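Quick check before the chapter quiz. The format below is the same one you will see on the exam, so make sure you can read both the input and the output lines.
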Amino acid sequence: MEEAKVTSKGQITIPKKIREKLNINPGDKLTFKENEEGEWIIKSNKKSILRLAGILHRPNQKKLTVEEMNQAVKEAVAEKYKKDS
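Here is the expected output.
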């Protein structure tokens, strides 16, 4: 079990072992939540990019090449500027 001492300003230093495990860096934000048993849960607000994997997948959607995507972007930009003029 790790411990941290509270300063007179209400600040603590999170032990290095915990900071490394949670990948906590200076400036990161933490969330504190009380569970039903009255225990406090501390979570890092960092989210992994991996949680986004597959969110754009649509069954039977044609796979595009990078060139096809670039062309679609060019056409969309051209259309937008044509409308704005």
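If your answer matched, good. The mean pLDDT is 87.
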